[in-house]
Amino acid sequence: MRTVGVEEELLLVDPETGEPRALSAAVLARASQDPGDQGVFEKELHEQMLEFATHPQADMARLHAEIVRCREEAARHAGEIGCAVAALATSPLPVSPAVGVNRRYQWMADQYRVVVHEQLVLGCHVHVAVESDEEGVAVIDRVRPWLSVLAALSANSPFWQGKDSGYSSYRSRIWQRWPSAGPTELFGSAERYHRRVADMLATGTLLDEGMIYFDVRLSQRYPTVEFRVADVCLHAETAVLLAALARALVETAAREWREGREPAGHSVSLLRLAAWRAARSGLTSELLHPATMRRMPAEAVVRALLDHAGEALAADGDLERARESAARLLRRGNGARVQRELLERTGSLRDVVTECVRRTQAA
């Protein structure tokens, strides 16, 4: 059974006002004093962000428990210095992002200017183990059409600078400003993948391989493929659903590769349209079906994903859990829908953030 790890970026906020707080260095200093949390939390590009990474897990119940524990520990460390954490992919309230003070982040700020100074967005990255780079690239080629569905499930960023963006995942639209971000064409082999990365770095436009921001990529640090399309999810259960689906997509793609089945040849242009539709609509309307690239109700497209990956989900013991979790998500709505409903009920973005702080720590 393939292992899965999850990285989540959390927003640091004032518990009273809901406004983002640039206190990541202080929170990390607190976490470093706790032997159990050393190496779990990391700095990110902006000081209003805090990232954690789980251990590789084979069992989804254990992964769920670790995500909840990491969120609780992040909240505890943040609380000790007077702030809170929220699993929000953008700040509902206006914010002026503060860039972290280190050489890498300062290079990025000098190079990309307003992109860096406006881009306070928070994602969820899922790592799934692969046996080799060759298998990993075969997987990357074959999961491309399904990434937009994962993005729709996770959508959790309707607000931008105090206003409704009109999107379910505005984070994903902001993220596309990076020159290396987005879907990729078919690679066909690990050699071609690595050649493409080397060619991109040779332009001098990117600082290092960590700035290869493909929607799904080979990890630099681990023997994994890394899914990078998702917003950080408001509810831990949704993050676990993404992890289960990502693992099943990897296993399904690897089987297709071993059986000699060719990947779908959708162009990058079509994949960009599918990603835009997922960002705009989330689960509230229609998505592009990964097989046909034609509009269908979101619920039908989610069912298609569960069917496509169903054999692998069943083999991992995740099929019923995934079906039940997806059904709850469709009924309740993703984070974007929850945030909008909270605003409609309370009339206050501050109250939206306060409630999302509470939900971030809920099991």
Give a quick summary of the entry.
The protein has 363 residues and is α+β, with helices and mostly antiparallel strands.
Biggest sheet descriptor: 7 strands, antiparallel
Q: Which range best describes the helical content: under 10%, 10-25%, 25-40%, 40-55%, 55-70% or over 70%? A: 40-55%
CATH architecture: 2-Layer Sandwich
Q: Give the helix tally.
A: 15
Indicate the overall shape. Answer: globular
The pLDDT mean sits at 96
Radius of gyration: 19 Å
The CATH class is identified as: Alpha Beta
User: Which structural class do the helices and strands define?
Assistant: alpha+beta
Order of helices and strands: EHEEHEHHEHHEEHHEEHHEEHHHHH
Instruction: Indicate how many domains the architecture comprises.
Output: 1
Strand tally: 11
Could you tell me the CATH topology label: Creatine Kinase, Chain A, domain 2
CA-CA gap between termini? 25 Å
Portion in strands: 5-15%
Low-confidence stretches: none
Notes on the structure:
The protein is α+β, with helices and mostly antiparallel strands and 363 residues long. 48% of the residues lie in helices and 13% in strands. The chain contains 15 helices and 11 strands. The strands form 3 sheets. Strands 1, 2, 3, 4, 5, 8 and 9 form a 7-stranded antiparallel sheet that branches. A two-stranded antiparallel sheet has the order 6-7. A two-stranded antiparallel ribbon has the order 10-11. Strand 8 (216-218) and strand 9 (224-231) form a beta hairpin. Pfam families: GCS2. Belongs to the glutamate--cysteine ligase type 2 family. YbdK subfamily.
